[in-house]
Amino acid sequence: MRDLPVEAREILDRGTLCYLGAPSSLGPHVTPVVFVLERGRVWGTTGRRTTKARRWRSDPVAGGLVRLGERAVAFRGAVSQYDALQPGTWPASVFRAPSLTLASLRFSRKNARFFAGYARDVTRVPLAWTPPARVIFSVNLDDGAVLDGSGIRDRWGRWGEDPPGRTKPHPTAVTRHAAPLDEAQIPDDMRALLGPQGEGVIGLAGPRGPVVLPATWARDGDGFLAVVNEPVLALAEAGTSTRAGLVVDRASRWRAAHMSGVLLRGDAHITERGVHLRPDTAVWWRGWASGTVGRP
């Protein structure tokens, strides 16, 4: 069990949503999920056929961000999945059986209000959101940092020890130069979230996998400019060109049916101004519905 900094544990214990990123050649696939901290790992569930579950089968690494007021914890680490229908996950399930049991109990207690929301919307919940269609996952907190508006308050793992730039590029950290996104393809109510500026979350493809960080953003020419505190941005070790995903969403503290958002993914260029993202794909979600547009 990793000995986390006290402040990091407080944020992870009290935070409601984790913006969790899985690696993808299109750019980090970042969406909000409910979670729980148990024995130094972040635990949650996802649909068996979701992008995250599929990507983690071939590239089991994740980056995440949990916010609590003006503070946040960013982390990255190896992913394990536990699925009764996938024999390859059974050894990990047996090895971590005590943690799996405790995490499941704590997950249910911590997120009871979301389960109440499911109960209220039970007639609308699709099969993919019900327990038989979902798998449990956990993420090691291998590297992490406690953040606030002024920068980095504390850090651990490689982020606390190694200087950046000493690893080979991760296979997803490449640019694609695809056609620009036609935002008219995004449903009108989802496109309304993409105003002239706002607050969001940006996932960057780095040399050790995706890194998810808090950002403010604004329209900028043919794309979006995401501004991230410079020392915080350096955690991604992304160089000057990579793939990125910007999340702009409207969260709910208890009803998944009321959550909505857009993930914009594309080539990203990092300059002194920040991260300039030129989207070529978008993933949107509204309650139980979701869609992808601009697939290259």
- State the secondary-structure class: alpha+beta
Number of alpha- plus pi-helical segments: 7
What general form does the structure show? globular
The Rg value, from CA coordinates, equals 18 Å
Detail the poorly predicted runs. Answer: 163-170
Question: What does the average pLDDT come to?
Answer: 86
For the record, give the distance between the C-alpha atoms at the N and C termini, rounded to a whole number: 42 Å
Can you count the beta strands? 16
Helix-residue proportion: 10-25%
SSE arrangement, N to C: HEEEEHEEHHHEEEHEEEHEEEE
**What percent strand?**
35-45%
The largest sheet is:
9 strands, antiparallel
What does this protein look like?
By secondary structure, this protein is an alpha+beta fold. Helices cover 18% and strands 43% of the residues. It has 7 helices and 16 strands. The strands form 2 sheets. Strands 1, 2, 3, 4, 5, 6, 7, 8 and 9 form a 9-stranded antiparallel sheet that branches. Strands 10-11-12-15-14-13 form a 6-stranded antiparallel barrel. Strand 8 (143-148) and strand 9 (151-156) form a beta hairpin. The chain is globular, with a radius of gyration of 18 Å. The N and C termini lie far apart (42 Å). Mean pLDDT is 86; it is low at 163-170.
